[in-house]
Amino acid sequence: MRGKQYGSVTGTVVEMVPAANKGRSNQGCMMFASVEDEEGNLTVFLVTPSTYVLDYVRITTGMKGTFWYDTNAPVPLIFPPQYNAVVVAEEIPGRSVDVGYYNNSLVNDSQTLKLNLDASTEVVTVNNQIFSGSPAGNNLVVVYDFSTRSIPAQTTPMKVVVLCNRAY
Q1: Which of 8, 124, 133, 144 is geometrically suited to a Cys-Cys bond with 157, CB 3.0 to 4.6 A?
Q2: What CATH superfamily is the domain 6-90?
Q3: Domain range annotation of the chain
Q4: Could you report the per-residue pLDDT of 81-115, keeping only the tens digit for each?
Q5: CB within 8 A of 155, min separation 6: which ones?
Q6: Strand 64-70 versus strand 6-18 pairing type
């Protein structure tokens, strides 16, 4: 079975608002993060306990980051668009992050990045436990700094987080 397709929005968090579920406040467990991209477009993301936040950073107003969502998940037809955040990563100069399905050759779905793992690559699960198998054939969060200019680009990532077929 193939992994999920992910879309993303990169921008600045302009508002954080507690989310209510059927009239209950969820006691702070869920938040709406409004993200404004460079063109001024606003997108709202629901951040839940299932959202994987890279490096466990606190999402705050003014933070620049990328929010990934499942493009196959149902979404309400409202404006601004609203998605469930699957992964959130703060923008850090010199660091790149890719989220998506990597096949048995460790090439992503869009055929733009190939992973060359070595002993320096940290491979973990979302709760930061060592992943003992091969990350191939899974949805991954890939953190890297440099890549080649080949097609697909190749990199030896610093960190790979295996999403382990989490249900979002």
Answers
A1: 144
A2: Nucleic acid-binding proteins (2.40.50.140)
A3: 6-90, 96-162
A4: 999 999 999 999 999 999 999 999 999 999 999 99
A5: 113, 114, 115, 116, 142, 144, 146, 147, 148
A6: antiparallel
